[in-house]
Every structure is written in C-alpha cells, then in structure tokens.
Amino acid sequence: HRETQNDDKDTQNRYTKLQRFPCVTLSVVLLIVVLCVPELRNGSAVFWEDGVSGGFQVLLLDEDQGWLLVGGKDHVYLLRPDGLDLKTRTVRRTQMLLLAVPLRTHETDCANFVRLLQPFNKTHIYVCGTGAFHPQCSYLELGPNAEVETSIIHPSILLLGCLSPEGELYAGTSVDFMGANAAIFRTSIQGSSQHYIRTEAYDHNWLNEPEFVGSFSIPDTHSPDDDKVYFFFKERAVEAGQWDRRVYSRVARVCKNDVGGKRSLINRWTTFLKARLVCSVPGPSGVDTQFDELEDIFVLETKDPQNPTVYGVFSTSSSVFRGSAICVYSMASIRAAFNGPFAHKEGPDYRWVEYKGRIPYPRPGTCPSETYDVLHKSTKDFPDDVISFMRQHQLMWEPVLPLGGRPVLTRVQQDYMLKKVVVDRVEAEDGAYDMNGKVVKAVSVIKDSWNREEIILEEMSIFQQHLYVSSDVGVVQLSLHRCDFYGSDCAECCLARDPYCSWDGQTCSRFFPSSKRRARRQDVKHGDPWSQCPITEDDSGSVEVKQVYGVEGNSTFLECSSRSGKAEIRWTTLICWFGSDRGLLLQRLDPTDAGVYSCSAHEQNYVQLQARYRLHVLPQHGLQPAGKLPGLQPGLQAHRNSWPNPLRSYKDLQMVDSLNMDQYCEQLWYREKRRQQKLRTLKLKQENRKARVRRNNPPERSGQEE
C-alpha cells in the first residue's frame, strides 16, 4: 500500500501558546512535573495538543536534520529542538478498523499509536504503529513531499524494537489480542534472506507474562557473525513457584544470524537465553532489599563498542515499601552470567536447581561462526542434542549483579517513583562523570574501588545539553545547565558539585573544558570550597543583622534556608547552638530570649553564615490594646499573671521544617477552628439542658392559691 501524506492544516496552528496557558501540568509516566511560565525561561519550552491525548511515548532526535521526532496518536510530530515548533506528518490508516470489544475502548486503543521510530537513512525513518490492532510499519520521508510506504507485520501490538542496519526488525510484543501470547521476534523489512523467527508460543519457560522495556544490538566480538541483540524486560518469575506472583527483571539475548532449527525449533530461536537482573541494597544478616521491577534501560556507549555501560531503573514490588533505584551493569558481568551454569527443573513438582549434567557442543547460546567452529555455519547445522537442550534450558542459574554490588542511586518512601533514566557523560575539571537524569538530576562520583557517592542536584536525549521528556499529554524541554540556581557565590557553586557548572570568578556559570587548569573553579569529586575558592575565616560582616521585635508571651518565627538541600542548618545564640532544618519558632517569648540569633549552613567541613537576627522582646505590660480604656489595664495585667511560667529549655523552641509559615499557620488556624467548634458544641448542649429543665420544672403562677 502506498498513500500520499499531507500536512494536517488543522494541527499546524495548535502548538504551544504560553500566553493562553499560564501553567501546564505534564504527567511523566507516574512522575508529575509541573512547569509554570516563570520556570520556562532559560531555554525551556513545552509542546502539547489542545485537548487531545497525544500518547507521546517515542522520541527520536535527528541532529543532522535538526528535528526532534515525536510519535503520537495518528501523527508523527516534527519539532525543532530549540523551540519545539510544530510540523506534522500523518501516519493514519486509510480506513480505521473500529473494534467493539468490552475490554478495550475506542478512544484509547482503536487508533494508530506510533510505538517505534528508527533512523533508516539520511532521508527516511522507519515508523511502526499499532494501527488499531492491525499494526503497520512505514518508511517516512522527512522532505517536503512525504510519502509513506506501508508494510504489514505479524504481531498485533508493537511494544518495543530495534532496527538493524541489515533491514531487520527485532521486537518484543504481544502477538494475540488478549496479550496471552508474548514473543520476541525478528522480521525483514527489505526482503532479506533472514525469515520470520520468534520465541516458542505459550511456553512459560520462555516468556511468562513479560513487559518489555528495551532492546539493543551489541557486538560480542570483532566478527559480525557473533553479534547479538539484547532484550530487557520484567516477567512473572517461573522459579518462584506456581502460586507466587513474584516479578523478576530479565536480560535475554539472541544471535542475529539465528535462522532456527532444521528438524526441531523450526522458525524458533535456537540461541535464546535469559538471566535475572538483580538490583538490591545489602542488609544485615544477608537479607537484601530487592528492587525487582525493571522500569527503564539506558545503554551508554564507550570507546569500546563491545562493552557499553548499562543503566537500569528499578522499583519495588511491595505495596508497603515504595522505592526506586538505579543500578549499573557491565557487559562483562552480563556475558559472565550467560557463560555460566544453566538452571534446570526435572519436572512440575521439582524445584529449580543448577544443572550439573553434560552440556552439549557447541555450547547452547553460541552463535554459528568461524570464531568457534567452522563446521557450524548456520543454526540448522547444530546437532540435535544442542537443539533439544535449548528447548528445555533457556534460564541461566547465576544472576547479573550490579557494579559495586548495590545501586548508585536510591529514592525510597517518596511521593514519586523513578521511571526513566538518561545518562550523559560530562567532562569536568577533575575527570569525566555520568549524569543520571527523573527528572532527578544526579551525579555518581566514583570513590575508591567501585564505591560510589550519589549526589542529588535537582529533582526536575541530549541535544545541545537539553533534556526532552515526553508523556501522554505533551513534550517538555529542559536545559541541563541551570547554574543560576546555585547563585553567584564561589563556595555554593563548588558545593553544588554539578559537572555542568563552575565558578568563573564572578558567578556560577556553564562549564566549558579549558586548557587552563585554574581558569574555572570546580570540584565534583570532593566538593571542597577551601581548595577552590578565596574564602575568609570570618564572614559575619557580609550578612546584615535584621532587627526583629516580639511581644512577651507571643510567638516569633525566625526564617533561615540554604540553597543546598544537603547542608545542615544550625542556629547559634550567645549561650548555645542547636540544629534546625528551615526555621526557628519561639512559641512563648520571654525577656531572656532577647539577643542575637545566627543561622549557618554546614556542609563538607564548610560553614556559611545565612542570616542574623537581633531579637527585641517588648514587655506585655507596656502595651495598651487599641480601643481599650486605661481602667482595663489591671485586668489585662491580672490576665497576664495567670499565664504559666515559661520553660526556658530547647523544648520551647520548635523547629519548623518548611520553607515558610504557611503550613504552621494553617495548623494553628485548624486548631483554633476545632477549639471554637468544641465551644459551640458545648454551648449548644448547655442551652439544650437548660431548655429541658425549664420544660420539666415550669415556674409557679404568682396568683395561684391553695
């Protein structure tokens, strides 16, 4: 089928107008990102469709053409990366098939949702969409006269895939309408000699209710015959038991030159193997906290194309303990698991154990190539015992462990879950660092051996240092270097430990690698401002003393905050010091509270004075309430004397863990409202009681005689 594709004129003028929408809320998977107009200055931008759920799940950045391609509902959007200006290409079917099925709705499923965008050549990209449960793949031209050449593929709902340079599509999908028959398959899009091949159908030992996350083509050796495609997914664990719904994360691989077996496993993978991905935090007595559910995968290329670094986002399966983690894996550890022992189960009533028997030759999972044996030029040449072994043994016994034996980043008991990870290798003043961007922006610093330190910078596809985040609602562009956030102080810029920023002598600005070692001040590894910045021992003169007046018996709030979320806030008076997160609330003032209060931020052996207050306590008896007569002063004094004596201890000083007093005032208002409500209820009960007494004991008449 060929159909000419024209721009949809109705959608060309529906791009972002910030004047009409003062604030937009974007849902990034389960993470909610709220971006208002003041936050969109600094090169950030937003794109969305007016009132239409676009289903923007796939992004492809074409740096040569200068386009950001976004796969949505019935459309491929071509956005300019610098401003997200809109240009569309329609990729809808000629006649959309409308399915009246109770389990699925027409609005959410019976449409052509683009799920795959892969570069094909300099002028075309390869696009695959669901096609209302009749998926199609197309070549989309990026020129002015775009045409779409459509080809039908076997599966019904494409979930993920990768396109090889040879014109072969590798994908993981659900083959049937109900989603019970999952498959990892390969199909040709150019009439290649490689034919359609997939995993075994309805066999839980191969795939058991999988949810595919990513797939990547990674070379194994210098010979192209050894190239493999790796799939990352999560599935119900077959080794956990029949009634256990436990979910494990997996990595599976197949050989690119696999053509199936000759007498068995015909049109089925003969090199399919899978292993468990473990991401856990070691605990006492050998009990680890497991992050079992894989959410996202990012493969960071290195100088060696055979050994990229794999970053994975994981979450917990528990409904009680909520947490997310990022683990890092090496290809060496992944290959070691596939070269290790196989898992074996003798029968339905047996447990999974390590296989101790004879392993046939060539080793199952090995690609047919001259690297291992020149006699096996194809998988059809494999002996029958190899094919029979592969039919029964797909699972490896040893799991894949992360580098360092633990996650590089964890977020637990938060009101959000990490769902996506993007990694950027940044050249800093003291080395190269990998940036993990939840948009949690963090840096992972390698210490001794493989010990790492996680540094949270901000909780907010790289193109000129921009991050693009898509959701069902729209696409947002965020700048990676937000150095203005750290201020103009050298120490604060150094303590931020942001590889994108450094102090240039006047302010914290974007870092550019320079041949002059001391041209920029930056210390990502240690964050030591003493070695980088001209710091004086006493900075008390740089902070103005604010005069604060309070009335005896009343409360007073002293506010203090630091730009760094990692700093410890301490308050100092003339007699002692004590810690506080954000502010200091003196609940009942006393004349002894008068004096100077200093707030300082402590981080990395560096102390920075944040605020200074001189508190004056006015005596209560010296004040006369407005509208009151002087004769009422003794009563007021008597009322004051009825107050309990103030307790002069740290317990009278309430630490306020908030940026302002809104929450505290709201609590006081709610407390006062409840007190007044109780008084009204008590008064109403007393009035009802008096009314009952009057009804039961009516007054005697004055003129009544015996």
UniProtKB/TrEMBL annotation:
GO biological-process terms attached to the record: axon guidance; neural crest cell migration; positive regulation of cell migration; semaphorin-plexin signaling pathway
Domain Ig-like: 534-610
One Pfam assignment: Sema
Record key words, sorted: Disulfide bond, Glycoprotein, Membrane, Transmembrane, Transmembrane helix
Residue ranges annotated for the Sema domain, each copy included: 32-480
Entry annotated with the keyword Signal: no
Domain of life: Eukaryota
Cellular-component GO terms for this entry: plasma membrane
Protein name (Swiss-Prot/TrEMBL): Si:dkey-49n23.1
Source species of the chain: Amphiprion percula
